[in-house]
């Protein structure tokens, strides 16, 4: 694609996927430059990818709102129906350590709902982008369920639910990588209660919903984006047939506390 006219002609979903894929390539080039140690690399990658994504979105969709983890927030977005929400590097630590479990999130909320999403996983062999407009067939669950958890600080509630389900814990880095692991058949449940922000879950939730998965808060309520307070601390992504039981377990644990 040679110019903004061609990019502007893309559908919203195709634009999200294109930007996530290009940002992923940029991040790999920043890392491969060899100019940064692991700590500095995360900051350099975040800022470089953020500049690309924000400039590109303003050029292609200048009338829409924009919220990025790495960009100063502008309250003007609150009056917009269509708001792009991006995380230039989800899993900065994993990116800096040259692991595969990091992601780029590009998505759009419409009237607060996660409608459009693309999650790039550039660290995987060849890199892949999972997108809301091109759903894949989600592999069937095995006899023993698998739950992705933080590889550094798994939440107490998550570990307890996994124990009650008899689920295997699968440590993993970024939120996007965890959510996409369910789609890719590497896991069956992504339950998070340790604190997140809108950019951590918006694109993954849109992609998960488009693939026929359940995506909600851990009390079962809907995920709502483009809020004045962008703190959105919890998330459940899983197959629909497992959602009711998991939500009941969480509610029961809350009553016991």
From TrEMBL:
<keyword id="KW-0378">Hydrolase</keyword>
<dbReference type="InterPro" id="IPR000760">
    <property type="entry name" value="Inositol_monophosphatase-like"/>
</dbReference>
<protein>
    <submittedName>
        <fullName>3'(2'),5'-bisphosphate nucleotidase CysQ</fullName>
        <ecNumber>3.1.3.7</ecNumber>
    </submittedName>
</protein>
<dbReference type="GO" id="GO:0008441">
    <property type="term" value="F:3'(2'),5'-bisphosphate nucleotidase activity"/>
</dbReference>
<dbReference type="Pfam" id="PF00459">
    <property type="entry name" value="Inositol_P"/>
</dbReference>
<dbReference type="InterPro" id="IPR050725">
    <property type="entry name" value="CysQ/Inositol_MonoPase"/>
</dbReference>
């Amino acid at each position: 694609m040679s110019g903004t006219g061609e990019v502007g002609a893309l559908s919203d979903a195709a634009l999200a996927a294109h930007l996530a894929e290009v940002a992923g390539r940029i991040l790999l080039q920043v890392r491969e430059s060899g100019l940064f140690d692991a700590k500095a690399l995360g900051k350099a990658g975040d800022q470089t990818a953020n500049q690309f994504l924000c400039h590109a979105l303003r050029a292609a969709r200048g009338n829409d709102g924009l919220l990025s983890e790495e960009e100063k927030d502008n309250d003007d977005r609150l009056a917009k129906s269509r708001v792009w929400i991006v995380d230039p590097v989800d899993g900065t630590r994993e990116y800096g350590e040259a692991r595969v479990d990091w992601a780029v999130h590009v998505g759009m909320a419409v009237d607060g709902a996660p409608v459009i999403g693309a999650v790039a996983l550039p660290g995987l062999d060849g890199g892949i982008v999972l997108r809301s407009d091109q759903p894949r067939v989600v592999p069937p669950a095995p006899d023993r369920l698998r739950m992705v958890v933080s590889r550094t600080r798994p939440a107490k509630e998550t570990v307890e639910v996994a124990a009650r389900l008899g689920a295997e814990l699968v440590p993993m880095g970024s939120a996007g990588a965890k959510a996409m692991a369910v789609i890719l058949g590497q896991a069956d449940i992504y339950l998070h209660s340790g604190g997140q922000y809108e950019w951590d879950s918006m694109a993954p939730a849109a992609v998960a919903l488009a693939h026929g998965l359940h995506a909600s808060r851990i009390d079962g309520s809907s995920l709502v984006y483009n809020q004045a307070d962008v703190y959105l601390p919890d998330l459940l992504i899983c197959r629909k047939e497992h959602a009711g039981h998991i939500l009941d377990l969480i509610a029961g644990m809350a009553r016991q506390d």
